Amino acid sequence: MLDPKLSYEKLEKLKDLLQSYKSVLVAFSGGVDSTFLLKVCRDVLGENCVAVFSSSALSPKREKQEAEKLAGSIGAKLIVLERDIFDNEDFLKNDMFRCYYCKKDLIKKLKELKEDLKINQIVEGSNIDDLKDFRPGRKALEEENIKSPLLEVGFTKDEIRFLSKEFGLPTFDKPSMACLVTRIPYGSQVTLQKLEMIEKAEEVLLEKGFKQVRVRHHDDIARIEVDFEELPRFFDLELIKDISNKIKDLGFKFVTLDLSGYRMGSMNQK
Fold this sequence. Notes:
270 residues; 10 helices; 7 strands; alpha/beta; sulfurtransferase activity; 2 domains; Alpha-Beta Plaits; globular; Rossmann fold
């Protein structure tokens, strides 16, 4: 059960830790964790806090727009870093360490920016609950000495959501995010067409009011995951027909619903 007093104690520890950095470059996705981190960084360090959004085919266009809006509302400077993930041959092998290769490439660019701006530390928003899933990108962060202050202080996802709500951040109840390639099975070719199909298919579900959505790309098959509590909505036959037709129009031959619902890291399961 969440303890508000403990959450605020961790917040004070976080502020002290950030103050010791003097200046930070925040890897900012616009998700729950990085938005909370950016807010606290901005409160503690003022203009010595700069946010960076990594824009590529791996992130839905809506996330870039939301990140720009969020950073503006927090009052933080935002730099949009454009990346071409198809230049990374290791990443395109699409093995179990694709996140590691991608993170390595991103960190290289962040370090260049850090030097140009004369900033002391790069920080990112991992929390203690992230350690429960297979995260090869974590290794890259540790190798490159990227700071994870929320993790270091011991914040859980629930505590971050609680304090985000206390701060009035609109992301306090935002669904979990992950880059689009996580919808493609390991070993399958990663193409721009597949990423665009996934993004547009998920837009179909979001426009229908679903909150936590994933469309897994299995060649001709689109496998839909939504929160378990939202599965009963598919008893509406007209809704099923509409969703199926719209997703098939994107290039899929078959559209299926995963009856287990959304699970973090489901593509890592064997």
